[in-house]
Amino acid sequence: MAEGTRPILELVGVNKSYGDTQVLTDISFPIRSNEFITLLGPSGCGKTTTLRILAGFERPDSGDVLFEGASLLDVPPFKRRLNTVFQRYALFPHLDVFENVAFGLRLRKTPEAEVKARVAAALKTVDLDGYGKRWVDQLSGGQMQRVAIARAIVNGPEILLLDEPLGALDLKMRKEMQIELKDMQKRLGITFVYVTHDQEEALTMSDTVVVMREGVIQQVGSPTDVYNEPRNAFVADFIGESNILPARMEKDFEIAFAGHRFACVDRRRAEADVDVVVRPEDIVLAPPVEGGLNGVVTSVVFKGVHYEMIVECDGTEWMVHSTDQAAEGDRAALVFGPEDIHVMDRSPFSPDAHGILPADLAGRAARASADEGDPDR
Amino acid sequence: MRLRWLAYPYVLWTVVFTVAPLLLVAWFAFTAVQPDGSSAFTLDGFRSIVAGDRVPLDLLGLQEVFGLTVGVPLYVNVFVKSLQIALLSTLACLLFGYPAAYLLARRRARQRGGTDLLLLLFVIPMWMNALLRTYAWLALLEPNGIVNTVLAAVGLPKGQFLYNDFGIGLGMVYNYLPFMVLPIYSVLVKVDRSLVEAAEDLGADRRRVFTRVVLPLSMPGVMSGVNMVFMPAMTTFLIPNLLGGGRYMLIGNVIERQYMIARDWTTASALSIVLLVFVLASMRFMTRYEKGNEGGGVLL
Amino acid sequence: MRMPVILALVLALLAALALSAAACSAPTTIYFYNWGEYIAENTIADFEKANPGIKVSMKTFDSNEALYQTLESTSFDVIVPSDYMVARLIKEGKLYKPDMAAIPNNAKYNDPRLKAVAFDPDPAVSSQMFDYAVPYLFCTVGLIYSTADVPAPASDEPADVWAPLFDPKYKDRIGMYDSMRESIGVALNVLGLSLNTVDPAELAKAKDMLIAQKDDVRPIYGIDELKDKYVSGELAAGVAWAGDYVMCLDKLEEAGKDAGQLGFALPKGTNFFVDFLAIPKNAKHPAEAQVFIDYLCRPEVSLADSEYAGYSTPNLEAQKSLPEEIRSNPALYPDDAAIASLEVYYSSDEIDEKYSAIWESVMAH
User: Fold this and answer.
1) Are residues C213 and C319 in the same domain?
2) In this structure, what DSSP letter does residue A332 have?
3) Which domain holds residue C170?
């Protein structure tokens, strides 16, 4: 965990709009040295714009970008000590792999021998030894991605900006590259600022996750924080599968929702309206009991490791993940412990009594569409 | 494969309108009509190209500036003169056309769709007949034309704008500029903006973004622009006919006169063959360095 | 298999019917091959009105050589070759000998002095000219000049008259015909040589003179486009057919300018030429062609054509109706002495080849 180390880069109250559309509102967060920080959010949340402001391709309307305490705003992109890995690689088609990687070094008039050595080292880092003479149009997607990374890291940047670098790869390649990237970040000791719409990718790789929606930061925290302690219904919904319901604190350690009272581990002002989230994997199906949260299994889908089941209780649909299979039509009770109930403040994203989230909330639907590629600008 | 017959009309077209005329020209070049009406093989056509008067070579002011006199056959000199004016016009088209194409492409990128009025202004003259366009220059540049009248009105000396290198060059640049601008423009608008950003990101200032990324990427467009200007500039006879006052002869005019006035089809065809071979060779020379010509250029 | 045969028979039958029907009712069409803008606009229509049985279809050419070429492959009834081309066609046996009794207007009105001109080096050919052809219009070649810029020639000596064309003072303001006989003819005339010389040394002198002129004076070479440049004052002087000079005067008048702006001078020994009306041997309707030729020899018709084309008419009766300043201009209607000094062009393969080679290399310089 990178907490405590000095911030190398910091966004302070950044606002940005295109015409009448406000794309970033009061964006502030620090980026610490050597951390892997991920900007996560659905399409159009402003994560790419934030990255472009860091790279210098966009200028904020107000606010500041501080690099080691000094403003970066008047520093043009080519003078910033950070490099970018672009969404669609942006490799130079008129140059071979070697010259693509050597591009930045040559601009700095690096001696030829050093260019050769550093390019070779960078290609080795991304596992592309011996590919120097290939043309970029002879490479696969994964290879192009590696060249793009080599082209950036060869310059020894202090910060590497990665804009959905794995978005165009297939699932298997993506999983492999996630591990490699994380590994590379640790080895090279570079700060990675990573943009993705894939929450799983974010949780897997990051030290810190910045969850954004419509240009506003929803939560900044470690992957476990944002997963286990989502600050609002949007975060809870976006990070992982979840059952979100309106609730009411009865008193400390006691909460009421779904027509029942439950023990919980939170202390809140009594009579406060809150939201709760219960993760599907925390729910156990048991035989129905009198006074329990009973329902009917309406759908069972096999997901490989577990079954994903929908259980309807009093008009509210609950999602349950379990390795034990139930049959459709079975009656069952939903069982979870006090520590499985996470209490959140109410927000504009709060669900209705049946756990249905507001229609405009870019939750699961947005995530599904974003999986097809994110033209987020 | 089942649709192969669809290609036959094009094959026929090519045979009738390309291959046959070429063969005809070749036939005329190597034969002469005898007094009895029959045709006999001859190399006189090619011989008369290198025979003829010897004149001082008129190349890049060789004679005027350096006082060098290199004697060459008359037609060789005309050929060299045509080559020189064609190259200079192509260069001028490139120098004016590239920035124009660059600006148009930048505007296009900023506007994102819609019709660019400026581009339209570049294209509209191409909808007009070349003859009419060039006559307009006559009216403007004649010794007693509009420009000279204006010059005289403000008390400046009149200029001789027509019937010389300047007039012919101007006519060529004016007529052929769109053929340079459009191919370059169409390549430039396709250059991915992210490549420019990638170059900036890697430390290139605006000048080096241009020299290291944009310019190399636009080379296919430049090459096809150069071809599309150089070829007609090298072979034109219309522009010297209109703007040359009858005294400015390029190789195209010499060929036209040999066919139409002197009626020496053998020499005319021999000149045409030499010109054709030269133009094809220079195009080949220009395209060979292009890896995968993407500019919609002329493939050879 | 049968249908196409039957179809072809039916079509052939129909075509034959159509042809014979046309032959019965339609008037005879004669084909007239003329220079462009060389006949008054109403002449043909008036002729057809006067002769309902004959229609005239006119095509135009722009050089005697083009006429000669076309004649090989196409049949015409009336053609308008210049003198040397008439001689050539006579020599090659390509002209029909008309019945001059059917063209009475020719003997009645046309200037008999023309018969004395040596139109061909061979007197035998020259003497046959008027058996085969009828003079249509004629023209001299002289100097057109802007009276404001160029002083009138001191004499009618060729060197005096043509001097402005070789004077660098008029750089870029001299007009030359892009026509080998006229331009080489000017040089030969200045040098005091025959316009028909084939002597290589003499021709080389003329060529050098024209190349030097191209370098020093930088003339504008052209034909029709020169007229406007004389009228506008862009050109100070040039070689011109008298007919072009007359058309320039018309243009000056149209533009509301003074006709005195342009002068025309005829040097001794310059060229004059006569365009003749003739009937080619392969004519399909020679009888009707004679009717048409006779009509063109009528004084009022000849006058109209002459005024339209700007060329001089050989028709003595028509000349009487000309405006005084035209008729009395010795450049347009030369007196006996002038006519005696003028030289016509001869044509032969040798002349064609030599002059063409010279002219093409002058132009390519």
Assistant:
1) no
2) E
3) 139-271+345-364
Separation CA B144–CA C208 (nearest Å): 31
Q: Quick count: other Cβ atoms within 10 Å of Cβ C331?
A: 21
Contact yes or no for A366/A43 (Cβ under 8 A): yes
| Least confident among B58-62, B290-294, C29-33 | B290-294
pLDDT of A335 strictly over 80: yes
pLDDT at A371 over 50: no
Mean pLDDT of chain B: 85
Per-residue pLDDT of A146-202, as tens digits, reads 999 999 999 989 999 999 988 878 888 888 889 988 998 998 889 999 999 999 899
Q: Which of B231, B218, B230, B234 is nearest to B183 (CA)?
A: B218
For residues A284 and C83, what is the distance between their CA atoms, to the nearest angstrom? 121
What are the tokens at C39? 């006949």
Once rounded to an integer, what is the mean pLDDT over residues C76-82?
96
Query: In this predicted structure, which of A9-23, A362-376, C107-121 has the lowest mean pLDDT?
Result: A362-376
Residue C313 has pLDDT above 50, yes or no: yes
Residue labelled with tokens 């305490």: A69
Identify all chain A residues contacting B194, using CB atoms and an 8 Å cutoff. 86-88, 90
Is C83 in the same domain as C14?
A: yes
DSSP string, B226-283: HHHHHHHHHH--HHHHHHSTTT---HHHHHHHHHHTS--HHHHHHHHHHHHHHHHHHH
Query: How far apart, in whole angstroms, are the C-alpha atoms of residue A87 and residue B194?
Result: 9
Q: Looking at residue A368, what is its pLDDT?
A: 40
Q: What is the ipTM of this complex?
A: 0.81
Domain annotation covers residue B2: no
Q: What is the mean pLDDT of residues C292-307?
A: 95
Measured CA to CA in angstroms, residue B61 lies from A216, A311, B65, B68, B84 at distances of: 70, 94, 5, 9, 11
Q: Amino acid letter at B161?
A: F
When comparing pLDDT for C19 and A5, which is higher?
A: A5
Structure tokens at C17: 């019917």
Domains within chain A, CATH numbers bracketed: 7-228 (3.40.50.300), 243-354 (2.40.50.140)
C246 and C291 housed in the same domain: no
Question: In the structure, do chain A and chain B come into contact, i.e. share 3 or more CB pairs under 8 Å?
Answer: yes
Q: Supply the pLDDT for residue A113.
A: 95
Nearest Cβ partner for B246 among C220, C232, C357: C220
> Does residue C9 register a pLDDT over 60?
no
Any CB–CB contact under 8 A between B51 and chain A?
Answer: no
Q: Is the pLDDT of residue C10 over 70?
A: no
Chain B residues with CB inside 8 Å of A84's CB? 197-198, 201
Kindly state whether residue B206 falls inside one of the protein's structural domains.
yes
Task: Please report all neighbours of A, defined by 3+ CB atom pairs within 8 A.
Answer: B
**Is residue B11 domain-resident?**
no
Q: Is residue B254 part of a domain?
A: yes
Question: What CA–CA distance (Å, rounded) separates C144 from C349?
Answer: 31
Residue A87: the pLDDT is: 87
Average pLDDT over chain C, rounded to an integer = 89
Would you call B192 and A90 a contact, using CB atoms and an 8 Å cutoff?
Answer: yes
Q: What is the DSSP string of C106-167?
A: HHHHB-GGGGGS--SSSHHHHHHHHHHEEEEEEEEEEEEEETTTSPPPSSS-HHHHHGGGG-
Looking up residue B115, the CATH number of its domain turns out to be: 1.10.3720.10
Q: Which of B21, B1, B2 lies closest to B13 in space, CA to CA?
A: B21
Q: Under an 8 A CB cutoff, do C361 and B143 touch?
A: no
Q: Tally the domains of chain C.
A: 2
Average pLDDT across chain A, whole number:
88
What distance in Å separates the CA atoms of residue A202 and residue B105, rounded to the nearest whole number? 38
Kindly state the tokens that stand for A222. Answer: 């470690």
Do C129 and C107 share a structural domain? Answer: yes
The number of distinct structural domains making up chain B is: 1
Residue B59's Cβ-side half-sphere holds a number of Cα atoms within 13 Å equal to 17
Q: Which pLDDT score is estimated for C333?
A: 92
